[in-house]
Structures are given as C-alpha cells and as structure tokens.
Amino acid sequence: MSTETSTGPTTGANATATEYAHEHTPRLQWAKLAPEVYKAMLALEIAAKKGLDPVLVELVKIRASQINHCAFCLDMHSKDALAAGETVERIIQLATWEESRHFYTEQEAAALELTEAVTVLTEGAVPDEVWEKAAEHFDDVQLAQLTAVIAVINSWNRFGVTTRMVPGHYTPGAFKR
Fold first, then answer.
1. Which helix (H) or strand (E) holds 122?
2. Containing H/E element for 45?
C-alpha cells in the first residue's frame, strides 16, 4: 500500500485539498513478466473486435468489467467509450441497463444480455433464449466475433483483478489495440 495521500482537484482561491483513500499498488506487473502472453492477448483482442461497432464493443467491455469488479478495465473502457463518442449517461446506466433499456438499441440490449450470460455462466450454459435474441440482431460472423470480445474482456478482467491493476491513470488510446 502506498503511504502517500492522494488529493483531488481543488477550485477557488480558498479551496482546501480533498483527502482521498490511499491508492493501492499492483501485486505484480504481469504484462512485463509474461510478455508473450500479453502479446498474444493483444493479438486476440484485435482479432476479436473486427467487424463490430467500436462503441458496442466498449459497452460490452464496460458491462463485463462491472460484473467482474475490474476497476482498471472500467476506467479504461469508460474513457475509450467516451473518446469513441459514447455519452456519459449511457455509460452510467449500463449497470442497470435492463431498467434503463430505453437508452439502448435492441441490438445493444441483446449484446448486453449475452455479455451477462457469458460472463456469469452460473447455470453452466448460455440460455437458448439469450442466444436466440442475440441471433436476431447479429449474423453468425458477428455472433462469433461478439462471443470472442466477451471472452477476451473476461480474460483481461481476470488479469486486472488478480494482479490489482490500478485504475485512474489510463489515457484513451494509450494501448493501441
């Protein structure tokens, strides 16, 4: 753990600094320690998202990262989504997209439902009705790509959560993928 105090922005001449909780340190720098795995993950990432709408891809990544509690990936993909033209409002509503369904297209809702089913897998399978709904909005090639995107973000989440990657320092586009 860091022993330094993290302070946020201040405004006005007499504003006082806000003291935030200490920023944790990562357990290890896995990308540097396993560079071939990292390179393979990047290649898989690039291949997985081909042919899919970049904003849809970011929505899927954010939703999976919320479910998996990956703060680093939430930070990264929220910023990337904003840079790609997504709205703050739709990003905020993702955690409760079913109640905020009117913020999303039917295709996006089907992708989010599929993301949840693939990410959680509590019943040991993706329900047929979830798959069929997604198949109404995506052709077979797109479904294959979307499934790959979901699998890849779940892998990234597991690296991020396990190694305690630190959120808050990512700049959109920093990792050209």
1. none
2. helix 35-48
